[in-house]
């Protein structure tokens, strides 16, 4: 519902927005809105968490040497993003973005 005020500018009625009571539902709603706003693109400098144990590699390649392994749920900052789905970590190394939740 919209109300119209001065100069016929629509103002959304605050009762129209339903706030979910479940925190997980709220987080899912925010994530969906973020993905829709960016067309699913991930921006450099973005924070995320690993969705599973994740190898950090020396270069962006599955054949590259594993530098170390991150535990599931580890917070990461993506410094740069490659065209083929790898993210360079701010503290060094590369991870597959398929296994990072934003």
Task: Give a description of the structure.
- The protein is an alpha+beta fold and 102 residues long.
- It folds into two domains: 1-40, no CATH class; 42-102, SH3 type barrels (Roll).
- 16% of the residues lie in helices and 34% in strands.
- It is built from one helix and nine strands; from the N terminus they run ββαβββββββ.
- The protein has one helix at 23-38; strands at residues 2-4, 10-12, 47-50, 54-57, 66-70, 75-81, 86-89, 94-96, 100-101.
- It has a five-stranded antiparallel beta sheet with strand order 8-7-6-3-9, with no helix packed on it.
- β7 (86-89) and β8 (94-96) form a beta hairpin.
- The longest helix has 16 residues, at 23-38.
- It is globular, with a radius of gyration of 19 Å.
- The chain starts with a strand and ends with a strand.
Key terms:
alpha+beta; SH3 type barrels; 5-stranded antiparallel sheet; globular
Q: What's the quick description here?
A:
By secondary structure, the protein is of the alpha+beta class. It is 16% helix and 34% strand.
- Content of β-strand: 25-35%
Radius of gyration: 19 Å
* CATH fold call of the largest domain: SH3 type barrels
Number of domains: 2
Major sheet: 5 strands, antiparallel
Q: Name the CATH superfamily assignment of the largest domain.
A: SH3 Domains
Overall 3D shape:
globular
Distance between the ends: 31 Å
**Helix content percent band:** 10-25%
Q: What order do the strands of the largest sheet run in, or round the barrel if closed?
A: 8-7-6-3-9
CATH class label of the largest domain = Mainly Beta
List SSEs in N-to-C order. EEHEEEEEEE
Q: Give the second-level CATH assignment, the architecture of the largest domain.
A: Roll
Q: Kindly state the mean pLDDT as a whole number? A: 75
Low-confidence stretches: 34-40
Please, how many helices?
Answer: 1
How many beta-strand runs? 9
Structural class: alpha+beta
